Amino acid sequence: MAVTGIGGLFFRSADPDARAAWYREHLGIEAGHAGIWQQDAGMTVFAPFPADSDYFAADQPFMLNLRVTGLDALAVTLEASGIPVERRDEWDTDDYGHFARIHDPEGLPIELWEPPAQA
């Protein structure tokens, strides 16, 4: 017997309906109790970080990392919707791909990750 993947991510919210709508509108994730989000197969990283890590905000218990395609175009769309997008040259590598950060309406950090193209 083995775990085969993540079956869901459940988290508390001050306004679950509005938060789910934000994920649907801006990231295309079928969020909420009534929706099922069918993901593309791909790598998933499951990694505890030290409690004093500065990789993401200390006041947040976790950061959501989402695999994306077309990161540059997505960043433009998000910024046009008033969502700040943070990018840093040191986050991007040939081995791991390209990254950007946003925050959902309740401050949860979201890392957008475009893996490197497979040769």
From TrEMBL:
Transmembrane segments: none
The VOC domain, residue ranges: 5-115
Annotated InterPro entries: Glyas_Bleomycin-R_OHBP_Dase, Glyoxalase_6, VOC_core
GO function terms (MF aspect): dioxygenase activity; lyase activity
Keywords in alphabetical order: Dioxygenase, Lyase, Oxidoreductase
Name used for this protein in its record: Catechol 2,3-dioxygenase-like lactoylglutathione lyase family enzyme
Native source organism of the sequence: Conyzicola lurida
